[in-house]
Specification:
Order of helices and strands: EHEEEHEEHEHHH
CATH architecture: 3-Layer(aba) Sandwich
Radius of gyration: 23 Å
Number of domains: 1
CATH class: Alpha Beta
Number of helices: 6
CATH superfamily: Peptidyl-tRNA hydrolase
Strand order of the largest sheet: 2-3-4-1-5-7-6
Structural class: alpha/beta
Shape: globular
Distance between the termini: 88 Å
């Protein structure tokens, strides 16, 4: 079984905030797994089903962001799973809004939910899909920014990014971390410049009068 965990904060006041994009991606995956079932366990909202041939457990920890690892550790321990069976989906202040980055391991990079997971599991060896939310405006507190809601153009960008993030998580389930990383992290090639037009045809001289 694979486990996909979205990081965020529980409660209506946090719905649609920048810090809850992990929850949003898990909600999209749950929608795609129409034959699954939901329950509350391990301090998390859980939804279990299949993506293709793979059995998948989706989780949204209800511990608040900074204690996410506590719930994640309970899930892995109960199901006797390894950190390599885990994908965490979370926001990232260091990426432009809507930019996706998939890694098989690494540091928390300042993301407190990731850091708590590393602390609880005792390892950095688990996959994480980061979704860019960009840096806060100058003089704006980072906490206020991540707990704020998307506005204007960034809301439009996230409406495109969230389904792509769900696609990336599905690809990780179906084909593994290396293939998923190659697809998600690839830099799009710039469009080829149009071929120069051939020499303009010479204008025909006007017809002689009869």
């Amino acid at each position: 079984m694979k486990v996909i965990v979205g990081l965020g904060n529980p409660g209506r006041k946090y719905v649609g905030t920048r810090h809850n994009v992990g929850f949003d991606v898990v909600a999209e995956l749950a929608r795609r797994m129409a034959d699954g079932s939901g329950r509350v366990k391990f301090e998390s909202d859980l939804y279990e089903g299949r993506l293709g041939e793979e059995r998948v457990l989706l989780a949204c920890p209800q511990t608040y962001m900074n204690l996410s690892g506590r719930a994640i550790r309970q899930i892995l321990t109960f199901h006797k799973l390894e950190p390599q069976d885990l994908l965490i989906v979370c926001d990232d202040l260091n990426l432009p809004t809507g930019k996706l980055r998939l890694r098989k391991d690494g540091t928390a990079g300042g993301q407190k939910g990731l850091q708590n997971t590393i602390d609880q599991l005792g390892t950095q060896q688990f996959a994480r899909l980061r979704i860019g939310i960009d840096r806060p405006p100058e003089r704006m507190d980072a906490t206020d920014y991540v707990l704020g809601k998307f506005v204007g153009k960034e809301r439009d960008e996230m409406e495109l990014a969230l389904p792509k993030a769900a696609d990336a998580a599905e690809l990780w389930v179906r084909e593994g971390i290396d293939r998923a990383m190659n697809a998600v992290n690839a830099t799009p090639k710039p469009p080829k410049p149009p071929k120069p037009a051939g020499p303009a045809a010479a204008e025909e001289p006007p017809a002689a009068p009869d």
